[in-house]
Amino acid sequence: DAAFDSNMRAIVDATLNRGIIPVLSTFSYDPGMGLWRQSVNFNRRLVQIAEDYQVPLINLWLAARSLPAYGLEVDHVHMKHWGSYNLYFTRGSTAYSGAALRNLLAIRMLDEIRNTIMLDAGASGE
After folding, report:
1. Which of 16, 20, 60, 102 has fewest C-beta within 10 Å?
2. Among candidates 27, 28, 24, which has minimal Cα distance to 56?
């Protein structure tokens, strides 16, 4: 756990030092699997790092709790992908896809960052 924390902080430091906004993300995990406590600890560390550095966090773990199988494939590791060419976030089987949820949250986060940067630039008169 300490190595994970240290390495994640080094990544956040390196990206911030290059003027990049890092976006951290928790991950989904099935509580019935053997590494449940470790996954919770890793996710908690990610939340803490995002808070410490005041960087954006996508809480995929929390968002995926309501999906069947927590949005995970049968391997309990990868996000479920329905293989559809049409991506609907509100209906059909893809609405219950972990991959669709992850993509939607990422798009929303990027839009939020874009809007925030534009608002900040407008406020400073740039």
Report:
1. 20
2. 24
